[in-house]
Amino acid sequence: MNIQNVVLSQLISALEGVANYQTTQTRAGRKRKRAESGKLSTKKAKQDEELIAEAPTPTTAEPEVEKPVILNHLVCGINAVTKRLEDQARRVRRTTVLSTVGQSGDEVQTPISLVFVCRADVDPPILIDHIPPLVAACNSVKPEQHIKVVPLPKGSETTLAERLGIKRASIVALDVSRVRHAQCRTTLNCCRLSIRKSQSSLNACKPSYL
């Protein structure tokens, strides 16, 4: 089985319920805008209020959709991920420089741990060429919080966008505190072990030259 497809499958599983929540929030936002637009005349508004007051109370209401936990640990989009990585690299450098002085008073964001990139779907690719250097900058200063860049197979952008309930999703990132993203880490570790085993098998098959 293709490693990238396995990782994509795990990521899609972790994003369950996000699209439904986003759709619900969009509808609620549109309703609020219509209510605040003031398009209805005063007379029409009063008539509506009277009708609402006379109307029987509905027995059932549209159920609220609970916000998926993963949204608290997810960063979507090239600009958003770039800004988060830049802030993380800047914060890591500042922490290293000021380590002997004391703790900084700035609000600390949870560090990014995994960056999933739909490189095969990004046109032109130069739009995301800055991501690996940014990740390298973070990893070089604080290797114990190693960020992994994970390329996804072609067509992943559309799949992720549908799962997230947005138009496009060229790149998404997860922070280290995400509970369910341990599934993704487990998949990556399994993939890494598979690659090592494959390399060991290939090396064992190589002829020996005296």
What's the CATH architecture of the domain at 3-27 and 67-97 and 108-196?
2-Layer Sandwich
Extended strand count: 4
Radius of gyration: 24 Å
**Helical stretch count?**
7
CATH topology grouping of the domain at 3-27 and 67-97 and 108-196: 60s Ribosomal Protein L30, Chain: A
- Can you write the helix and strand succession as a string? HHHEHEHEHEH
Q: What are the segments in which pLDDT stays under 50 over at least 5 consecutive residues?
A: 57-61, 206-210
- What general form does the structure show? globular
Q: What is the terminal-to-terminal distance?
A: 37 Å
Strand arrangement across the biggest beta sheet: 1-4-2-3
**For the report, how would you describe the main beta sheet?**
4 strands, mixed
CATH superfamily of the domain at 3-27 and 67-97 and 108-196: Ribosomal protein L30/S12
